[in-house]
Amino acid sequence: DLMRQFDSQVNDFMDSLIEESATLEPAPLPAVFSPPLSDKERNKLRCCHLTDPRSVFFFLLSNHKRLIELFEVNHIRTIYHMFIALLILFILSTLVVDFIDEGRLVLDFDLLVFAFGQIPLVVCTWLCMFLSVLVVPFALFHLWSQTQSENHSHPRLCSVLFVSIYLLYQFFALGFLPTYIVVTNSLPPASRFIVIMEQVRGQFAINTFLYLRKPSVLSSAGPSPVLPQVSQYLYFLFAPTLIYRDKYPRNPVIRWGYVATKLLQVLGSLFYAYYVFVRLCIPQFRSISLQLMDVRATVLCIFNSILPGVLVLFLAFFAFLHCWLNAFAEMLRFADRMFYKDWWNSTSFANYYRTWNVVVHDWLYYYMYRDFLWMSEKRFKPAAMLFVFTVSAVVHEYILAVCFGFFYPVLFCLFMCFGMMFNFILHDQRKGPIWNIIMWTSLFLGHGVIICLYSQEWYAQQYCPIKEPSFLDLLKPQSWSCQRGPAVD
C-alpha cells in the first residue's frame, strides 16, 4: 500500500509538472541539433512502476520537442527540401517520358491503385481484429482476476482454463484468421501490409497488457483487485507505444494543423515511393526478368538498386516513425515522442539497432532480452542477444512472406548473418567518422540487396507460376529457374 501510494503521488506530481511546463514559453532552440541523452541519463529521468519489481515501466517524460522540432533546424530542413526537389524531378521526368512515348500526359496511378486494392475488405478485417483485441483479452483478464481471490476454491485450475482459451484465441482468431483472409482473397501487397502489421501489433499489445497487469492481481490481498478501466486499455491500443501503463503523460491541447500536416506528409511519401518504383525499379526488373538469373546480372542489379533502396529506407522512416506516429500521438495528446533517436549519427550497428525504432526496441529489450537474462540469472548475455535477433528476424520474414506471397528469406539471412556479425564487430566502442561511413555503406548495400532480390522474385512469381506447387517448390525461389521469353508480354 505504501508503494502504491508513493507511485500515485509521483504520477500526480509529474503530470502537474508537465502541464505547468507546457504553458511556459520555450527558450529558442540553437541552430544545431543537441545530442540525445544517454541510456543512463534517460533511466534517471524515467520513473519505474513500483507495484511490479520485475517489470520496469517508464514514466515517459514530455521529451518530444527535441525530436519533433528536429525538422525545424535549418540544416535538416534543407535536406528535407532537397528530397522535395528530387520528388519534383521524378514527377517531371515521368510526365516528360509519358508525353514523348504516348504523345499525351498520363496521370494515372495504376501502381498505387493496385497496391492498395480491396480496401473495403481490409477495413472490415482490421475492424474485426481490433474489436477482438479490445474485447477478448480484456474480458478474459477480468474473469480470470475474479477467480484469483481468496474466496475462490480452485484458482490454479481456473488459471489453466483461461490461459488455454487465451492461447486458442491468440493463435487462431488473431494469428491464423487474418493470414487466411489475406491469402485466400489474394490481397495486393500494401493491403496485406496493413492487415499483417496490425496483426503483429495486436499480438505485442495484448501480451504486454496481460504480462504487466498479471502481477498486480496476484499480489493483491483484497477480494477485489484494482483492475484497469476499459478507457485505459482502449487508449493504449491507439497510443503509439508498445509499453502499457495505466496512465501516460498528456499534452494540454491538440494541434489539428500539425496532425493534418503529418497526414499529408504520409500521403506525399506514398506518392514519392510510387515514383521511385515507376522510374527506378519497374523498368530495370522488367528487363532483368527476360533472362536467367546469373552472377553478372545479380551484381549489376544490386548496385542499380542501391539508390531506390536508400530512398525507400528514408521514406519508410519519415512516413511511419516520424509522421504517422506523431500524428496519432498528437491526436491522443500523447506526450512522449521518443519514437527514434539520431540513428543517422551511429558509428556502430549496436547503436543503430537501439535508435532506429525505439518503440519496438523498448518492447524487445524489456519483455524479451531482460527477461531472458532474468531467467538465466544474467549468465548468457550473448544467448539473450541471439534470441532477440532471431525473434525479430522471424517476425520480419513472416511479414514479408505473407505480404509478398512467397518465401524468400533474404532479410532473415541478412539479419541473422550480417546483422549479428556487424553487431559484434561494429560495437559501441567504435567511434569516429570512419565508422559512421562504414555503417552507411553497409546499410546502402544491404537495402540494394533487398530491393534487387525481392523484386526479381516478385516478377518471377508472376511470369513463371507453378500450378500445383509442392512444399519444396514453395521453399525454392522461382527467380533461380524462371526465364521469360522476349515474346511474352
From TrEMBL:
A Pfam family: MBOAT
InterPro entries: MBOAT_fam, Oat_ACAT_DAG_ARE
Catalytic residues (UniProt): 396
Keywords: Acyltransferase, Disulfide bond, Endoplasmic reticulum, Membrane, Phosphoprotein, Transferase, Transmembrane, Transmembrane helix
GO cellular component: endoplasmic reticulum membrane
Keyword Transmembrane: yes
Topology relative to the membrane: Multi-pass membrane protein
Single annotated GO MF: cholesterol binding
Listed transmembrane segments: 79-100, 112-145, 157-183, 256-277, 297-325, 383-400, 406-425, 437-456
Keyword presence, Methyltransferase: no
Catalytic activity entry: (9Z)-hexadecenoyl-CoA + cholesterol = cholesteryl (9Z)-hexadecenoate + CoA; (9Z,12Z)-octadecadienoyl-CoA + cholesterol = cholesteryl (9Z,12Z)-octadecadienoate + CoA; cholesterol + hexadecanoyl-CoA = cholesteryl hexadecanoate + CoA; (11Z)-octadecenoyl-CoA + cholesterol = cholesteryl (11Z)-octadecenoate + CoA
BP-aspect Gene Ontology terms: cholesterol efflux; cholesterol metabolic process
Subcellular location, record wording: Endoplasmic reticulum membrane
Family to which the UniProt record says this protein belongs: Belongs to the membrane-bound acyltransferase family. Sterol o-acyltransferase subfamily.
Protein name stated in the entry: O-acyltransferase
Organism encoding this protein: Takifugu rubripes
Upper classification of the organism: Eukaryota, Metazoa, Chordata, Craniata, Vertebrata
